[in-house]
């Protein structure tokens, strides 16, 4: 079994920043992660430095089972975070070790398990249909069985605040059962999201006093107070806070990880992230929005592109004199910027950092760095986004620093794609490309499932006799985002293409009003990038 | 002079629900109201029943001057609300009655004036460049001049919380000056938005004790706590709360009027709206988003279309038994609705609930219900998703229950789309459709920015001479998701199309390996759905 405590944060195990983007956050309408998406989300959260990553519900959801299997097989090497499996206590009248759902939690090999249990007597009696004694036994048995198997266990007390208000004794009995079973943290959940900050603080204080247990907090945003409620709970004594990236979640969503973390770090002075983590908040927020395929909220606290933007007016000149009189924090603290940027990528410091990551010393070429910043900014204004497309960014930086190869592996003359919905309902796609490669002009035609597939097939057919490495490259993922136009302009399409050669994966981006052309640009970048690394 | 107190709310003047959508809310990037827009916003806010509507800054902004002139000329007959003009205290070294900006406030004929004044010593000295004594005189003089002219005056103490933390004596002197001048309310403003709920409550309690003045609260959302901060301030004694519709405002925005009101009414039991007002919250929120030309936030607390939506699964059958166990309030209280999302885990219970929402009694047709469940499950296994596509689901349920119309509005024979990337780099898209409509076979060709745009244009060209209602229908949003295939199968594309006819919005879905065909399916459903509702 691997470690059960987060590594590298100054507060260590004293305070848990616990992320449930992959489980509770995935309840948001429209979100549907692939297993590869889930692995990418977990990697980004680990880069940020959260303490715990709840990966899903193994046994209940096949994708989650696969996620944990691939994580255990070495696809997810976490530096800071500990992986958590979520699940339910045993069913009524069954021994914990004989409950297949509980066994699936063990099989996931996650070192920590968070169990959900009902703590509102009405839910226990009407939904679970057992008495309180059995509900408590279900909690205690399951916790102690998992602890006996070497797992660290947290208990999510579902509907806790409503239950405690209605019948405090039952709610506390459930917590005590978890404590007796050996749970390390009992998490007070505002499952229906109806609480307000002062009430949360009062209840947390009271429960801490009455139980002596280590308390966590899990808030939903139905009163638009999830962040305020979470912070109030921490100020009242909770030392474990559950959040989701960008507040994704069912109904009005959950407490936003980035706002909660910003507040803990900047307002309460708590070192809940490893050094340098806070400055990654903005980047990670945007990258996770990209994977969820949800447009980032420009007005999001701390990390939104407008979070520190000031309309010219009342303060414009005063701001220049003393920006901190008009901002609640220095935006750099959370990796954001006071200017209105299309994204945070377009700063010199971050681009330099990014260059270093890609093996390019941009600090040594200040003019190339300036011109790269300018180029990235102007492309981002047109809808490009390099946050999730390192390979395209690398090509751009190579071009700006004069390090691009003199000769591209191929050049396009033209292409044509024809899509037919024929009489009878059959749908066909056919593409013809004319390219120059290896000193020759090549024309090739191919069919595909759709326009992009046909274009990719025709391009491969034209190039593969000339480029020996091409056959190893596969298009492994493809994402599309329609970007609303500015008034008076048309929408544009942004395409992200993830490629793989069996050894590594790389992502490229293309933007155009026409989705096929946008895809073409990303496909070309993918092949050019491979040709550099071959 | 007209009345200065809100009419028709049970709490009357004891509590002020104060809206600044038209002034502080208009600071949000991208918002630009015409005078007609401003009048429409004010009418909607009055219908809702807010107590005070801050209309703008007459004298400083020409549009605002015109707005007040037209309101005074009778274009704005307010039933509940009182109109407020916003402005600044007199300039340093000038008598209030000689300050042209102060005179413009009188000229606006608004019965109430809210004056903004600096209360942070650093802002007084560095931005205003006067000493504290003169800053206080500016406040007292201007307030007493306006009160002498028959106006009711509120004072916005800008940067109050930061100022009070840094130098409480100066901050309190400014409030006292306003009190001496005759201000009815002094509003503590968290201008930079950096506060948290427990701190706000503590400061409000302290200031109430030390000054004895009537206190208001104005919060910005930079810590994602604007709503929680506002409510905490009210619980600590503030009796005047300033908000903006949907939280529009500079940076991360302001406290959202709808969430604050929902909390005051549903959580604190305060009758801050006239009878029936709360049930208008959802409608007014969406209407104001429409005027601001900002897509409504589907996950907004209380009023978002997903605010009470549950993913089927864990709870669907329990929800049917007792919805209030799974909602923090009855959604009808705020004019919202409980939607049940149909997802991979679609069961009979959730589909039946969904049918009821759409006005179909599936319980009375158990066989149709079974077959619909089977159909939805098998379609979802192929990548269809109905959770965001009510209109497509309604068409499916109508077909399963034998209630679909016998004759579709049109049928497709075939289409062809040609995409060209020509020598020189120009990209073109052209579509030809062959359809049968109104007893005729019609062929039409059109160009577009991309394949879907061209197809939509060609279809409209073919149909619009025959379907009179078609021109009112607009494609308002378009989303694409590529779904990874199961091993051995190909990826498919899921397209969501949101349509609008100016009165309502509906969403349809299409799934196919070919993105253009998927879009076609969703476009067709959108038009068929409209033809049923026309």
TrEMBL record, chains A, B:
Question: Is Transferase set as a keyword in this record?
Answer: yes
Q: Show the coiled coil region(s).
A: none
Q: Which reaction does it catalyse?
A: pyruvate + acetyl-CoA + H2O = (3R)-citramalate + CoA + H(+)
From the UniProt record, give the pathway where this protein acts.
Amino-acid biosynthesis; L-isoleucine biosynthesis; 2-oxobutanoate from pyruvate: step 1/3
Broad class of enzyme this protein falls into: transferase
Instruction: Give the matching PANTHER family.
Output: (R)-CITRAMALATE SYNTHASE (PTHR43538:SF1), ALPHA-IPM SYNTHASE/HOMOCITRATE SYNTHASE (PTHR43538)
What is the protein's given name? Citramalate synthase
